[in-house]
Give the backbone structure.
Amino acid sequence: APIPQPELNTCRTATNINNGQPVPYSCCPPINNTIVDFRLPARPVVYERPAAHLVNAQYISRFNLALQRMRALPDSDPRSFTQQANVHCAYCNGAYTYPSGTGTQRLEIQVHNCWLFFPFHRWYLYFFERILGSLINDPTFRMPYWNWDSPDGMYTPSMYLNQRQYPALFNERRNQRNMTRPADLGYFGTDNNLTPSQTADNNCVIMYNEMIRNANLLEHFMGEPLRRGDPINPGAGTHEAGSHTAIHIWGGDPRQPSGEDLGNFYSAGRDPLFYAHHANVDRMWTIWRDRRGNLPRDFSDPDYLNTQFLFYNENRQLVRVRVGDCVDNLRLEYANQTRGVNIPWTSCRP
Ligand code: C2O
């Protein structure tokens, strides 16, 4: 059977997985007993998520305004930036559980290190983006992706670093040294001391390996199955375990006790850069799927397709979604900018 939807009324204190300590605040969303089922649009109209390094000043101002309004909402509002950041914490740090079916034991929900990684984060970003759009009265607004898989986009997009002009996109808790260097997709805690062009070459091979060479079977790329009753963390896919995680560690602030913000599940969503990072992770899922040809693109297992999550939408409604409804991003009315964006790594066979 699939993992059931989380129960909001049994949501508990989250755990900082990096140090085993309780998270010092609640990551649980407001309780709401009315749940609406998500319906895919009958005639989807697709808008593009732009590459962050290619947007103009007008786009950045609107994005900053949307985030500023989201930050200004009271913490009790499920659309607020605080609550949105806590969505990640609730699903990833042991706050949500479900009844095991035997006795009073409850089992933890964990969306990483398994086949739920890509679908969960897609839905999470989908609602985050819709909330931003509604706060600037523009349902066509689409968030930017950080194009770190190409030399053109491998530096942290400058809009996230300009505290004076775009304060809502800024976050102090980052690795400040790395903010002036290209993203190192092989970073697991030690500086590579390479030139930017050497880092770009390394990144290219890393991408080739995790997107092509080692990602032939569905479970290699997507992660291992996780069903109701299974022990969590059955195994991450190549991209989740690879450059996705590397960027989290690379961006986390070494001055903080536990890698906050990007370098820790409970705090990652507090950095606006997280959403641009994950928009590119989401783009990798689409690119990988589009390259499959006659090979299977999606698990056909109903335990995968019928896994459910709950999110608050832009109207503060609690919405129940299915994994099966998110596998095609076009049906969710967004695509990723391709014009002017290179995908260098398809030819970086080591
Ligand atoms: Cu839910 Cu990039 O982690």
